[in-house]
């Protein structure tokens, strides 16, 4: 068996926020002891309902948000303890594509300047000609005519702006792209085009991507492996095909059951109450999913199940799976 080359290893990441409600302080465990790895050339999808901690994971990896504890090893070096010079280096290697390309583009900067921005900051262009050539090449890679370099964000459609958002992440070539809900703000037909573009880029450039989305249908289209999050916890991880054909965690089964077009063959017997996740202000004991789970036992109400490995590299955090 070939050993996969790992680009990023996340170990025991924790992040707690303090929030106030009705005059009281509460701790919200946004990310609760999450570990996974990202392999070179793959798209790892992270999926889960809103508030489950997906964005916080992405933001801690690029140090927009500080982690409470844990390690994030990029090619073996811990991002969380890097000095400023090494951090600059990391910012070249790990790049972000955001949900709202309009908000992340400066309205007064031309598209060409926006695409070249990271390269400019890090002084990677030898001269103006090389800069112009690389901007033109990158715009072509994302399916835009090089003449778009002269335009401004307000002259572009939503789909074109997200193509620019992707171009910004591609120049200079990154090792890892973190795409946080990159198609959620787009119309469905445009979503498909942008997903196809990301898939093509992955094939052509061997891109490695952490793809964050609340939409399992979207994650299913693009991901090689999928990590399922629930209330700050990683509850299941498997290759995409295996996960959708045979979901093991009752929460994954619920998610798949709520996407009718996916061909899910396995359903939990007796049905599952869709319901809502408990309030993040409630301190839960045991499995975070136990009060929505039809197969919960007394053990699930008192002991949080740890992620354990089953056959075929699948991991699941459930006492009964
Ligand atoms: N800066 C913050 N201060 C307080 N609480 C926060 C902060 N950022 C996130 N949270 C809380 O942490 C939890 C996880 O949020 P996060 O944005 O990571 O979830 P998500 O799965 O990405 O959801 P969404 O898709 O809605 O962004 C939520 O309960 C959120 O309210």
UniProtKB/TrEMBL annotation:
Name listed for the protein in its UniProt record: ABC transporter ATP-binding protein
Entry annotated with the keyword ATP-binding: yes
NCBIfam families recorded: oligo_HPY
Residue span, ABC transporter domain: 8-256
Subcellular locations according to the entry: Cell inner membrane
Family note: Belongs to the ABC transporter superfamily.
Any GO MF annotation of the entry: ATP binding
Keywords from the named record: ATP-binding, Nucleotide-binding, Transport
Pfam families recorded: ABC_tran, oligo_HPY
Organism encoding this protein: Thalassovita aquimarina
Topological type in the membrane: Peripheral membrane protein
Matches recorded under InterPro entries: AAA+_ATPase, ABC_transp_ATP-bind, ABC_transporter-like_ATP-bd, ABC_transporter-like_CS, Oligopep_ABC_C, P-loop_NTPase
SUPFAM superfamilies: P-loop containing nucleoside triphosphate hydrolases
CDD domains reported for this sequence: ABC_NikE_OppD_transporters
């Amino acid at each position: 068996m070939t050993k996969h080359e790992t680009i990023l290893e996340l170990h025991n990441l924790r992040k707690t926020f303090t929030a106030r409600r009705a005059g009281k302080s509460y701790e919200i465990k946004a990310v609760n002891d999450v570990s996974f790895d990202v392999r070179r050339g793959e798209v790892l999808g992270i999926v889960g309902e809103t508030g489950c901690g997906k964005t916080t994971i992405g933001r801690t990896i690029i140090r927009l948000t500080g982690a409470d504890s844990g390690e994030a090893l990029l090619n073996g070096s811990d991002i969380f303890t890097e000095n400023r010079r090494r951090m600059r280096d990391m910012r070249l290697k790990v790049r972000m594509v955001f949900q709202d390309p309009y908000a992340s583009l400066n309205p007064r900067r031309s598209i060409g300047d926006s695409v070249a921005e990271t390269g400019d900051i890090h002084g990677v262009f030898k001269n103006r000609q090389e800069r112009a050539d690389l901007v033109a090449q990158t715009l072509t890679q994302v399916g835009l005519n090089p003449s778009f370099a002269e335009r401004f964000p307000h002259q572009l459609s939503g789909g074109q702006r997200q193509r620019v958002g992707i171009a910004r992440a591609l120049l200079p070539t990154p090792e890892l792209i973190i795409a946080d809900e990159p198609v959620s703000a787009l119309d469905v037909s445009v979503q498909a085009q942008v997903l196809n573009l990301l898939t093509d880029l992955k094939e052509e450039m061997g891109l490695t991507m952490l793809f964050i989305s609340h939409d399992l249908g979207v994650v299913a289209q693009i991901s090689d492996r999928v990590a399922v999050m629930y209330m700050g916890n990683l509850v299941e991880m498997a290759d995409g095909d295996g996960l959708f054909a045979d979901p093991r965690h009752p929460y994954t089964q619920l998610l798949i059951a709520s996407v009718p077009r996916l061909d899910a063959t396995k359903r939990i017997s007796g049905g599952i109450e869709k319901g809502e996740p408990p309030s993040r202000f409630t301190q839960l004991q045991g499995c975070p999913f136990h009060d929505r789970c039809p197969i919960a036992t007394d053990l699930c109400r008192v002991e949080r199940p740890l992620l354990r490995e089953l056959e075929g590299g699948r991991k699941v955090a459930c006492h009964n799976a």
